[in-house]
């Protein structure tokens, strides 16, 4: 009987290892074909994208699609951005290990995990309570103890944790909230999909120098809408 139990355990363990190896291979293919081939060169960004298990940040019925070149639905009308967009936005922030980063729009927690692989502190705000709580549990279970999740209105930022070296907004908005500009450190970078409601937005990178913002237009993008408490 003991031999039979050990044999069954060995079968399950082998299947688990093979499954993880398969996902690792898919991540490598994702990085090569979706990121590197499109010009993303930042080593720390690529290393983070290779490491974070994207399939654990999507619903169970979407795991087989986790590494395809497309956004995926995660519930509550929200999505996890396509890998290229996650990598592109991360690279544009030019993050350093000592940086403190604020993310607006936690979603599944995937972008926060990517950031947490690179910087010392990540603060992320999600307005939808169920998504925020699930993301917090997921990040904690995966060992990301340098990420703090808050349920709230991202428009207001997180003043008690500011200033931030970088801010990333993962929802489309028609203007940049003043509270977030105020919470951006001198020399800080803010990346945001900005433009009229329900249209293709322009991904914009802002750099704060001597209290003024330098604006750089990057690429056209489509994102879910920024949500506020009173909407």
Strand order of the largest sheet: 5-4-3-6-7-8-9
Outline the biggest β-sheet: 7 strands, mixed
The H-level CATH homologous superfamily, spelled out, is Vaccinia Virus protein VP39
Helix/strand/pairing category: alpha/beta
Summarize the amount of helix as a percent range.
Answer: 25-40%
The count of domains is 1
Query: Please, how many helices?
Result: 6
Number of strands: 9
Roughly what is the average pLDDT, rounded to an integer?
A: 91
Nearest-angstrom radius of gyration? 19 Å
Shape, principal axes of CA atoms: globular
User: Low-confidence segments, ≥5 residues, pLDDT <50?
Assistant: 5-19
CATH topology: Rossmann fold
Helix and strand arrangement:
Layout: H1 2-35, H2 43-51, E1 72-75, E2 78-80, H3 83-92, E3 100-104, H4 110-116, E4 121-126, H5 129-141, E5 147-151, E6 164-169, H6 178-182, E7 184-194, E8 201-209, E9 212-221
Parallel strand pairs: 3-4, 3-6, 4-5, 6-7
Antiparallel strand pairs: 1-2, 7-8, 8-9
Helix pairs in contact: 1-2, 1-3, 2-3
Catalytic activity: [protein]-L-isoaspartate + S-adenosyl-L-methionine = [protein]-L-isoaspartate alpha-methyl ester + S-adenosyl-L-homocysteine
Organism: Pukyongia salina
GO biological process, one term: methylation
